[in-house]
Amino acid sequence: MKKRIRNKLHKGEFRQHGISIMVPVDMDNVESRLDAILDVADNNHILFIGGGLGHFVLPSEEYGNMDIPKKIESLVKHLALSNGSQPDCIIGYFCHPTEKEINVNVADKIKAELESTLKTEFKINCRIDLWN
């Protein structure tokens, strides 16, 4: 009789790391700051998903049917369903479209590019667990 061998799933085995960001905006500069964030994402070949003040960005069809991590999915739902009660900031996540994480060097590069591009104070967390 053959025994079925099962691999034990280890905690964190399917972990995906990304970068969270929160940038203060007002109605006059929300589009320009969102464009600047998207330019940084495009330059580094990663995705930005998020938004604020009635503007939000989702992955385009070129990435096909990709799994969106739980934290990003709940953020997008909140931004899409909130009626007039959106915060006066852009909130979002950077994630890699094909790999499970953004490495530390790319995260540092993104942070430096955002500092030079946005020229305002913002909060950034360079390594967050997107699935839990």
Largest sheet: 5 strands, antiparallel
Q: Return the average pLDDT rounded to an integer.
A: 79
Strand order of the largest sheet: 3-2-4-1-5
Net shape? globular
Which secondary-structure class do the elements indicate?
alpha+beta
Number of DSSP strands? 5
Q: How large is the count of helical segments?
A: 3
Radius of gyration: 17 Å
- Give the DSSP E fraction (strand runs of 2 or more residues): 15-25%
What is the first-to-last residue Cα distance? 39 Å
Poorly predicted runs are: none
H/E order of the elements? EHEEHEHE
Helix content: 25-40%
Description of the structure:
- The chain is an alpha+beta fold.
- Helices cover 31% and strands 23% of the residues.
- It contains 3 helices and 5 strands; from the N terminus they run βαββαβαβ.
- It has helices at 30-43, 70-81, 104-118; strands spanning 17-24, 47-52, 55-57, 89-95, 123-129.
- A 5-stranded antiparallel β-sheet has the order 3-2-4-1-5, sandwiched between helices.
- A hairpin with a 2-residue loop joins strand 2 and strand 3 (55-57).
- Helix 1 packs antiparallel against helix 3.
- The radius of gyration is 17 Å and the shape is globular.
- It starts with 16 loop residues before the first strand and ends with a strand.
- 26% of the residues are buried.
- The mean pLDDT is 79.
